[in-house]
Specification:
By secondary structure, this protein is low in regular secondary structure. It has one domain. The protein has no helices and 2 strands. 14% of the residues are buried. It binds zinc ion (2 copies). The site of one zinc ion (ZN) has 8 residues, from loops.
Length: 73
């Protein structure tokens, strides 16, 4: 195992609204906190989400958030 960056064991789904996250193995598809559909890859370049706390894509720098933080109710 030399290339772990695209390994399923190290990928997460993120809520683009509130930032909640879930490991892909948990097979959560919607945010348990706000009901938003979780994303599992960058909407701009399609790279997997490797860091659960990440707010921006490690590859292209696009934000994972589709709703500005200050707009979250
Ligand atoms: Zn959420
Ligand atoms: Zn990207």
């Amino acid at each position: 195992m030399t290339n772990v960056s695209e390994n399923n064991n190290n990928r997460y789904r993120l809520c683009p609204k509130c930032g909640n996250f879930s490991h892909v193995a948990e097979e959560q598809f919607f945010c348990i906190l706000c009901g938003t559909k979780l994303i599992e890859s960058c909407h701009q370049c399609g790279k997997s989400i490797l860091h659960p706390q990440g707010k921006y894509c490690h590859h292209c720098g696009a934000t994972y958030r589709t709703v500005p933080a200050n707009a979250v109710q």
